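User: For my dataset I need records formatted as: sequence, then structure tokens, nothing else. Please produce one.
Assistant:
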Amino acid sequence: MSREAQLVESAVAVFRKRLEEAVVSLRLAEDALAFCDAEREVSALAREFATELTQGALQSIADDDARVVAALERVKERARERGIEMRRVGRRKTVLRTLSGQEVDVVVDYAVGRPRGRGPKTSKRGPQGTGVYPVLDQLGIVGRATPALRLLVARSVCEANSVSSARELLAMGGVDIGHKAALRLTYEVTNDALWARADAVAKLAEGVDDGPFAGRRVVATIDGGRLQVRTRVGGRPKKGGRKRFVTEWREPKVLTIYVLGEDGRRDRRVASVIDGTLGDADAAFELLLYHLRRMGAHKAVELTVVGDAASWIWKRAPELRETLKLEEERFQEVIDYFHVVQRLAEFSKSQGWTDEYRAGWYATQKRRLKAGDIEGIEAVFKQIRKRLPKELKKQVEYFSTHRERLRYAEFRRRGLPIGSGAVESSVRRVVNLRLKGSSTFWTEEHAEGVLHLRAQAKSGRWRELEETVLAVTGWRPTARLRRASGRAA
């Protein structure tokens, strides 16, 4: 009998009687409550069974010397790049938590390292130290949790409206995890995700010619949201030991990229791209360029950029087109129609006109806007400006500056979107429903990480995120710094 078969038979033997009793309770249930309790008992036993199998498989791998040697060599290769020499120091028992939420003990080889060469003593090691379990590292087990559990907790924390809600949902599935542990596992995933994204952005210098957006009509929309970040400051801790911090509102920039179908509507058969950053405008457009390149949008039939009238968007749009090497006829800029309508409405309310005159004036300008008669609207503002030149100068400049971005009749004729509803929906779902709150404060790094993970979940690209994260998950050696004249170098 193979080792795998022995593991299964051993686990089945332990749980057979309990499973039989649970199934009897399930079959004999005569009301909803009894059936519900019996079903939960069967599910709990299944999780215990899975835990036993996982623990047995892990221990079997840890006892396989060939696997240990191969895993140690991978660790040594990584460590050599940082000037660290690794060596086995024996086997240790460690406690791990599996996807079922239960803890298991595994006895596994441990390796430690030290900087190469001889010399004076070294300073305190980095946050990850120089010790590692090579086999566990090979399997993506970090933070004393299996990768499947870590990803489950991270998604739950990012999807739920609070950590407490996430823990309650996890507990219903049998994963009982503390508040701090849930955050720790989530931030381990966000750190790897942001590291992988930054690395990919830096490395992708050219577009992917056969990306899923190649040969399609693509729309890229970008907008800002609001959330509060906190920054630690000095001073005595508050009563209860809480450290002092200051808060400020920040504008995370969210982007949404999607494909248009033949009918001019969003093609929902192709998953959209949603992402965001707390970085500045340049960082937001760098992220937008990265996603357009990796999805093959540089080979799109047409790329349309939609946004509000924020100057940071339209100052960078021409450079985006040039970088993607798109001809002018394949690139279109559109200002959200509803932002312009709101602008006209607010202006009409500020003039002290009668309700009847204001309604007529507003309806006339709205018809002109929908028809793409921007010159007509400009002429109206120029006439009014003769009476109020300072107040109305910015209105004339607005319409003259964005004239070609407001040709809504032409956009609709070509089947192009005239609104930025897609990105506004993304801002609401990704930022407002999780990150924004009057008493919710984030560190900038954690806000960026949760924003990125939640965006992947809401765009239906969580599996893609998992593959990206697990490809980079693992021990990263931190070399100890040598001391010079009694001080750390």
